[in-house]
Amino acid sequence: MNSLANVDTLATDSVAIAAEAVQESLNVLDLAMKGGWIMIVLAVLSVVGIYIFFERYAVLRKAAKKSPLLLERLNDNIRDRDFKSAIKYCTRINTPVSRILAKGVKGYKLDNASIRQALENYAGLEIAALERGLPVLSTISAVAPMLGFLGTVTGMVQAFWNMSQAGDNIEVTALSGGIYEAMVTTVGGLIVGIIAIFAYNYLVSRVDKVQNAMEADIISFLEIVAESKEDGDAVVAQANARQQAAASEAENI
């Protein structure tokens, strides 16, 4: 009976120890702390990446909003030659597209090819402003896994160093520190890198969406300008024709 009681006690102790080991392994913070200084660098990179993502998301969400009356209002103002009202309306909306089209209104007297080139140049500047911070996010997605692999190498070096110093009396605890650092930094680097690359690709897709909408509005604006100039030329031609007809009648008289 005593032997059975001892066996039960040992089994209970073993289960308790295993449960504590499992609980310790699930403590993410403790595991992260065992990763060493590289985990601090990865934590900083993750904070920077999170800030860039949410800041750019807010900017791109605002830039993606379209004013349904923008082109209609510009069409009316340009046909009435009320350029000041058109520029004022674009300034009040204050979106990337409206800022670009305001530049086009200011250069209305230029030829159509020059207006198109100017709008494309301004669009490039606006897109560059929208992409601000994305190269940093892309760099984080590439550097984080490399830092994780660096932690793997340094951790294994530490483990083998401890092994060499222990001689014939090698203990698991002498190796666990280096192995912890090697494995934890690899996991941390991969997690930060994977999240960063997904965030980067998502923001790039949002930028592309804004760029496509911007190009469509620019094309529509150029059509408005071309039609307005054609109508103006037609009015001028009719006025000249009437003047010539009046002059001819006066000469005949």
Number of domains: 2
Measured between the Cα atoms of the first and last residue, the distance is: 143 Å
Strand content: under 5%
Let me know the average pLDDT: 77
* Radius of gyration from CA coordinates: 35 Å
Number of strands: 0
Structure characterization notes:
With 253 residues, the chain is an all-alpha fold. The protein folds into 2 domains: 1-33; 34-252. It contains 9 helices and no strands. The protein has helices at 2-25, 28-33, 37-64, 70-79, 83-93, 96-106, 112-130, 134-166, 172-252. Helix 4 runs antiparallel to helix 5 (83-93), helix 6 (96-106) runs antiparallel to helix 7 (112-130) and helix 6 (96-106) packs parallel to helix 9. The relative contact order is 0.12. Mean pLDDT is 77; it is low at 1-26.
Keywords:
disordered N terminus, 253 residues
In short, what is this structure?
The chain has helices spanning 2-25, 28-33, 37-64, 70-79, 83-93, 96-106, 112-130, 134-166, 172-252.
How is the secondary structure organized here?
Blueprint: H1 2-25, H2 28-33, H3 37-64, H4 70-79, H5 83-93, H6 96-106, H7 112-130, H8 134-166, H9 172-252
